[in-house]
Amino acid sequence: MQITIFGASGKTGRLVVQQALRRGYQFVAYVRDATKLSFTDANLKVVQGQLDELDKIKQAVTGSQAVLSALGPTGKKESDQQISSGMANIVNALDALEIKRFIVLSTTSSQDPHDIDSMKFKLRRGMIRIGRPSAYEAIVKYTALVRQSKSDWTLLRIASLLTNASLTKNVQVGYLGRDKFKAKLSRANLAWFMLEQIDSTEFICQAPAISD
Ligand SMILES: NC(=O)c1ccc[n+]([C@@H]2O[C@H](COP(=O)([O-])OP(=O)(O)OC[C@H]3O[C@@H](n4cnc5c(N)ncnc54)[C@H](OP(=O)(O)O)[C@@H]3O)[C@@H](O)[C@H]2O)c1
Predict the structure, then answer these.
(1) Architecture category of domain 2-211 in CATH
(2) Which of 13, 55, 102, 198 could lock 70 by a disulfide, CB 3.0 to 4.6 Å apart?
């Protein structure tokens, strides 16, 4: 099975690729700077491109049964805007090529109708909106684009501080105000859970929050 991933050069993205190669998938990694991927593998094809290069994006997803995004805003305005406009191109490519499975990292800055909102969550969102405005805006915008796509999307909303702790395969998944979440989420667990979604129909067209 061939999978394409955007954001493969990030801390979570690299773990997704490493774990996926161990599972035997053929992987296409779309990155803006190929030198950031420090490993090579016969089953890994690296495509270097920007998120505004629609034709290149289409080529990178052609033949893939699932597309993953580990793209994440960095808090730099111009770069964060590229993520939301780039997500529009990725969605365009998937819809045009009728690729259904689309698994995308997001955060709880983007609300879900299943969440039960509270002052605590409002304050948390407010702090991010004020402290990291471009990141907040990018997350809200690209999450809306994914939801509007024709794909079988799953948004995995990071609910906690990301860590480099080792893989335990033990994650809490649910909705704010309904379920309990830990303060941390290991990137290894996040990568594992993301890959678990490829063959799972459990969270299709859903956006659960996730923590360790
Ligand atoms: N750190 C936390 O505790 C925390 C908590 C909650 C949520 N989050 C969210 O989780 C996300 C993922 O975490 P992470 O640690 O894996 O992030 P990361 O290492 O910063 O990875 C972000 C990825 O997005 C790519 N990217 C960013 N802007 C881009 C652009 N304009 N064009 C193309 N690619 C772009 C980066 O590419 P390059 O490698 O080329 O830069 C990288 O591959 C974060 O971005 C953040 O929004 C983090």
Answers:
(1) 3-Layer(aba) Sandwich (3.40)
(2) 13
Q: How far, in Å, from the CA of 74 to the mean position of ligand 1?
A: 6
pLDDT, tens digit, 9 for 90 and up, residues 83-119 = 999 999 999 999 999 999 999 999 999 999 999 999 9
Give the distance (Å) from ligand 1 centre to CA of residue 73: 5
Average pLDDT, the chain: 97
Regarding the beta carbon of 159 and ligand 1, being less than 6 Å apart is answered no
Cβ neighbours of residue 43 closer than 8 Å, sequence gap 6 or more: 21, 24, 25, 26, 27
Tokens of 14: 């690299």
CB of 49 within 6 A of ligand 1: the answer is no
Model pLDDT, residue 38 = 82
pTM above 0.90, yes or no: yes
**Helix, strand or coil for residue 143?**
helix
